[in-house]
Structures are given as C-alpha cells and as structure tokens.
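Posting this for the archive.
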Amino acid sequence: MNGFEAKREDKEEISVVYLKGYLDAHTASEFESALQELVDEGRVCIIVNMCGLNYISSAGLGVFMGFIEDIRNKGGDIKLAEMTDKVFRVFDLLGFPMLYEIFKDEGAAIAKYRKP
C-alpha cells in the first residue's frame, strides 16, 4: 500500500496544500476532501505544492479538473508548484500547463497571487 498525505497550511488569504506520496485511485478521495474543505470555507486562492509527490494517476488529475471551474467561478484559482520532473511529465502530456499556472517554487506562486 502506497502512502499519501495532503497537508494544508494557510498563509493569510492563500492556502497551500502539500502533497506527499502517491496520488491515485485509492488516495484521490483524500485530496478531494482537502480541496472541498477549502472551498467550503471560501478559501479559493490555492497552491498545490507537489515537492513530495512521487506519483499521480488519472484519478489524481481528475480531482484537479473536478474543482477548477467552481474555484475560478468564485474568483480563485489553483496554482501548482514544485513538481518533480516525473510528475510534470504527466501533467505536460495531458496539456495541464495550458490550464494551470505551474511554478518552480512556492514563493513564486504566492507572489503571483499577491500582485495587484
């Protein structure tokens, strides 16, 4: 059984979700719950930091797609940060860089939210 963790840290108006381990069909619901909790609280400026993510499946990618429209309709966004090359290749293959802003580091993603 591969482990997975979605840990949240609020930085003023921005919420950062740190993903660790394997995001697949067995663990996607945990990530989904983390995002749903943010939306329920009205926190829609979200950064998903993937520095600890070793693997993502189509089920994991589906969680992003399931939330992005609702979050953007509420005036927010999901920005992605610190992907490993392996995880980035999966996102890139499916055209995600056209849909999501991807940052090398979390600080750059935070700065993008804070720009006037």
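The helical segments are 28-40, 58-73, 85-93, 96-99, 106-114. Strands lie at 4-11, 14-23, 45-56, 77-81, 102-103.
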